[in-house]
Design brief:
- The chain is of the alpha/beta class.
- It has helices at 26-36, 71-83, 118-123, 134-147, 184-190, 200-210, 232-250; strands at 19-23, 38-44, 51-55, 61-66, 88-97, 107-116, 151-159, 193-197, 213-223.
- The protein has one domain (9-250): Nucleoside phosphorylase domain (Rossmann fold, 3-Layer(aba) Sandwich).
- It is built from 7 helices and 9 strands; from the N terminus they run βαβββαββααβαβαβα.
- Helix 4 packs across helix 7.
- The relative contact order is 0.20.
- Bound molecules: uracil.
- Uracil binds next to strand 5, strand 8 and strand 9.
- Uracil (URA) binds next to strand 5, strand 8 and strand 9.
Length: 251
């Protein structure tokens, strides 16, 4: 029994899922399962890492699982998902835009990540590429086009901290950032990085090392060219769009 995810291969039935939809929040995993899947079975709630098995209308088995926040937790969950037979992972997350044209409520599909994450360095050398699976990624893009959902395709910055690493000062308990972080968002903007989030880079590096495929779609819930804040009224729309695109792309 993989210790953290709290279920094993036998719990996945005779027609086990190869695809996991991976959310940071347990509530999102539950929402996806109960809103979009049939014959849903709760697999585990251990440590808040809620996992559900369910089926699309075409009977395809799907796992909706929870990564928790940040790369250390994600790396444990993904390691164990691979051990129970998962071959493809789509992260359905949220992010903060750092480009003026990447607006609140839209979705960002990551083609690769600048990976500034400590957990990834335990998995592969720092220079190892953090790239999304091209086939899953193109499927996400084509689905967003088909559903007429506003999307952006590009490079994501995956970092370890929400406040310091994303250069938040006004909303942080500590307004004094280390000097190397001052101005980093502007540097990333000039490098054409689209958004900040906290999991994709490590997930992408793991694909190469562990031999599975992954993609990432995030709803934009903060617009960092205007404010540090999460804009709660845009969250539902942004997340719903990301879920719809991910689900339709694998249906
Ligand atoms: N997730 C992040 O990591 N940053 C944001 O600004 C919003 C969501």
């Amino acid at each position: 029994m993989p210790y953290h995810i709290g279920f094993n291969q036998k719990d996945l039935g005779i027609n086990p899922p190869e695809i996991a939809l991976l959310s940071g929040e347990p509530e999102r995993s539950r929402y996806i399962a109960h809103t979009y899947l049939q014959n849903v079975k709760l697999l585990s709630e251990y440590r808040g890492l809620h996992s559900y098995l369910g089926y699309l209308p075409n009977k395809k088995a799907i796992l909706t699982a929870t990564s928790g926040m940040g790369a250390p937790s994600l790396s444990i969950v993904v390691n164990e998902l691979i051990q129970v037979g998962i071959k493809k992972i789509i992260r359905i997350g949220t992010c903060g835009s750092i480009q003026p044209d990447v607006s609140l409520g839209s979705v960002v599909i990551s083609q690769g990540a600048l990976c500034r994450q400590g957990a990834a360095n335990d998995i592969a050398p720092i220079e190892y590429p953090a790239v999304a699976d091209p086939f899953l990624t193109v499927a996400l893009v084509e689905t967003a086009q088909k559903l007429q959902i506003p999307y952006h395709l590009g490079i994501t910055a995956s970092v370890d901290s929400f406040y310091e690493g994303q250069e938040r000062v006004e909303s942080s308990a500590n307004p004094n950032l280390q000097s190397w972080l001052l101005g980093i968002t502007n540097q990333y903007r000039n490098l054409n990085i689209l958004n900040y989030e906290m999991e994709a880079g490590t997930l992408f590096k793991m694909t190469g090392v562990y031999g599975f495929s992954a993609a990432c779609i995030c709803g934009v819930i903060a617009q960092r060219t205007e404010s540090e804040d999460i804009i709660a009224q845009d969250k539902n729309l942004a997340v719903e769009r990301a879920i719809k695109v991910a689900l339709e792309s694998i249906s």
